[in-house]
Structures are given as C-alpha cells and as structure tokens.
Amino acid sequence: MFYSSGLPFHLVEVLTIEVHFLYAANTSNLIGYVPPTYNKLRGPLLLKERSHVENLLQPIRNSWSHKGVTIVSDGWSDPQRRPLINFMAINESGLMFLKSIDASNDVKDKDFIARHMRDAIMEVGLNNVVQIITDNAVVCKAVGMLIEVEFPSIY
Predict the structure, then answer these.
(1) What strand order describes the sheet that includes 69-77?
(2) Degrees (nearest 5) of the Cα angle 100, 54, 65?
(3) Whether residues 29 and 88 fall in one domain
(4) 131 phi and psi angles, rounded to 5 deg
(5) What are phi and psi of 20, to 5 degrees?
(6) Would you say the C-alpha torsion 124, 127, 130, 131 has a positive or negative sign?
(7) pLDDT tens figures, 27-57
(8) Residues 17 and 93 occupy one common structural domain
(9) Together in a domain, 69 and 30
C-alpha cells in the first residue's frame, strides 16, 4: 500500500494508523498481524518490493534482443514547475520507464540531452535499440542527428 500509493513511510509512526491496521487485520482474520515499522518499510521491505518489480519487468527486458526497442524521451514540468525529462523503452511486449532527469540546474542543450540519451541507449543495450523518438523541438532534432552520427544503426 505504501509503495503503490506513494505514501510517505513516516505515516506508520502516526498512532492512529496502527489502530486502523490492527482493525483491518482483525476483521480479516489475520490475528497477530503486526504493521510494518518505518525502518522495515524503507529498508528490507522496499528492497523486496524492488526485486518484485524487477521480476515483473524481466519478460519485457528479455524481449528486447529479438524484438528491438524504441527509446522515447519527452520533457515536461512537475507541479513545482521543475523541468523534467523522461526516458522510456518501448516495444510490442510493453513499455518500461528508464529514468527521469531533473534538469532544473542544467542548460537543456543538445549535448546535455544527447548525453542522457546515450546513457539510456547503453542501459537498454546498443544492439537492442532500433530508434529514438523525441518531441519536435529544435534541440531534440539536433540530438537525433548527434545520435544518428554516433550510432548509425539507430534511426
């Protein structure tokens, strides 16, 4: 619940939440259930959840070598108006979020974006990437040309 809903871990330290957890456990015949602690949520349980998500994504990763991958990038602003750039890997097996760059303190020129695009290409594997897709901004067109020159196999 904490991970999928994006709830802050410190909520488990609020006394009333433990009462709610215990009530839900008792009405569901989970007698003896102990709610997770703050340290368990941010430590071993988080690592276990990450491993679970990685296992769910493995079939998509396994398809990259024989189906190819498109890397998609787009910029936007979050609710605090910070400029972010997202990178995703897509093929017919599914979409996988790779990373998001907070570009607040950087000049978003062709070299900056191309550097992060190269990192995304290397993460996916150069032999797996067929093409990149960005928006139609002038700087993104320049990034596309830089990537095509550096990696002739990528369109």
Answers:
(1) 94-102, 83-91, 69-77, 129-133
(2) 85
(3) no
(4) -155, 165
(5) -65, -40
(6) positive
(7) 888 877 778 888 999 999 999 999 999 999 9
(8) no
(9) no
Bigger pLDDT: 22 vs 114: 114
Q: In the beta sheet, which residues pair with residue 96?
A: 89
Which pTM was predicted? 0.77
Mean model confidence pLDDT for the chain: 90
Q: Provide the domain count of the chain.
A: 2
Does 155 map to a domain?
A: no
Contact 119, 150 (CB under 8 A): no
Between the alpha carbon of residue 96 and those of residues 20, 38, 64, 86, the distances in Å are 35, 29, 11, 11
- Which residue range(s) make up the domain with 74? 63-150
- The answer to whether the beta carbons of residues 46 and 3 sit under 8 Å apart is yes
Q: Which helix (H) or strand (E) holds 141?
A: helix 138-150
